[in-house]
Amino acid sequence: MVPDSYADGPRLLADIGGTNARFALEQGAGRVGDAHTLACADYAHFDDAVRAYLNRLPARRVRHAVIAIANPVDGDAVRMTNHHWAFSISASRAALGLDTLLVVNDFAALAMALPALGPADLQQIGGGQALAAGVIGLVGAGTGLGVAGLVPVDGRWVAVQSEGGHVAFSPFDEREVAVLQHCWQRYEHVSAERIVSGPGIVLIREALAAHRGLRVDASLSTADIVERALAGSDPLCRETLDCFCGMLGTVAANLAVTLCARGGLYIGGGVVPRLGAYFAGSPFRARFENKGRFSAFTSQIPTLVITAPYPAMLGAAAILSEHLADLAPPRAVAPLPLPILETENDHARF
Fold first, then answer.
1. Which residue from 164, 146, 121 is spatially nearest to 68, judged by alpha carbons?
2. Burial of residue 42, with CB atoms counted within 10 A of its CB: 0-12 exposed, 13-18 middle, 19 or more buried
3. Grouped pLDDT means (10 residues each) for the chain, 350 residues
4. Could you tell me the pTM of the whole model?
């Protein structure tokens, strides 16, 4: 029988991107709540954001924590790619008074949550049918571009951590070549993340305007561009969003053929879930299926937008449970379900 609450107190879960830090407490297996989102820019250090979240809650002892972070994790030192936070895992663990502090790549954590997601947590775009034991691909645009895989090994799932967002950008047509050429004027190496991301939407619009000899308001944010595009009030913003979705289709198809992802290609991140019904009719799926000699292959692969709130936390919670179980004396237990997050306070931004 799974206990209602953990004997050693609630566990701290966090999903940290370049813009927002999302926190929650896991009171017991399958019981996650007290969710809150903080802006990373409001805190000088990682530890400060953790304390600010914990200070919002009634006094309670938290001994174990897991942080899913938008960054490669290799060793004790963590330095974020898309934010200025840098910290030592061991020093932060001591400073925060924790027994356990795991730091894992956010997309590796998100990948671990995928098998537990149900129809209500997903929106399928286009056709295709997943193979039950097939490799799964994961890509998502937010402040950066996350990539991961999920591979079945001996009856369990193993996450494949990746920094695939930093591969070179691959243009599909002359318009995208023009965008790439515009970016080359500023960057020696133009990665997929540079363009296929939230900040990349601003860059795409700038490049398209330059290509057409237009002068546009350079003060528009990603959220402004998306809002105008969805409202149909600005043709350049709509073309920008169409271009972005087509580029994401290329990235997703490249990952699908690289991993042979017959188990499906999942789409996370902060941008696409906010596009609503538009995304289903966007250039994304047509581009995903337009893969030359492998078009028939990608056409069979389903593409699914993750609509569940804070899904990376669910995978991170599973990773922490496995870690603590490995440290405990052996005993017969029923497998723990992945937690279902109860959201309360989501102020996420692009």
1. 146
2. exposed
3. 75 92 89 91 96 89 92 89 92 96 92 92 96 95 94 91 93 97 96 97 97 89 96 96 98 98 96 95 98 97 93 89 79 47 42
4. 0.84
